[in-house]
Request: fold
Amino acid sequence: MEQGSPTVPALFLFEPRMLMRTAVTGLLTKQHSHIQTYQVLPSLLEGLHASRSDNKTLLIGVGGAGHACFDLLRLIRRMKSLKVKTLVWVPAEYPWMLRLLKSLHVHKVIAEEDIATVLPALVTEVMGAKPRAVRAPAGVARARSITQTELEILLQFASGLSSRKMSEQRNCSYKTIFSWKHNLCEALELKSHSDWLQVLFELSQLSSQYQAG
Reply:
């Protein structure tokens, strides 16, 4: 069933952790009484597709995604093409994830430790912003972003898959895999192999530290 009106802004919250979900809704309900909350991805997708609003904003807590973390990152990457604005938080001890999320066309990325002080104002700002164009206007420079394929390559590396195995699965050369990895390193501004390993470690940690209930 379709929900809402095309002219009414729609606010969605995906946060699997009950305490964090309660805290966020408590901060926002005075200004945004119609916030829709979700703790599993399939229900969130249903809610997004059911909404008739032309002004959708999605708030996301990545730190609570657990095994759904990789699918959540894929979803975040898709939101730009769906013209859904996104505001995402992640624990401060994962600095490379903050950088990764910024490369996925997220409107705002914050450390979850800052939610209490900055979230209400940022939500109002993001809801009032225009959805970002899929392509930057002519003559306007844009930050290097990660493509869907590059994101998949990164997630496969984080899952422990080797370059050789990836090239076999994708029926491409090892050099092609290396080229995608090089593009990822540029987009994330990685300076060393140690930085690369830290990105993979943070992805691995986020995908295993929490089980959504």
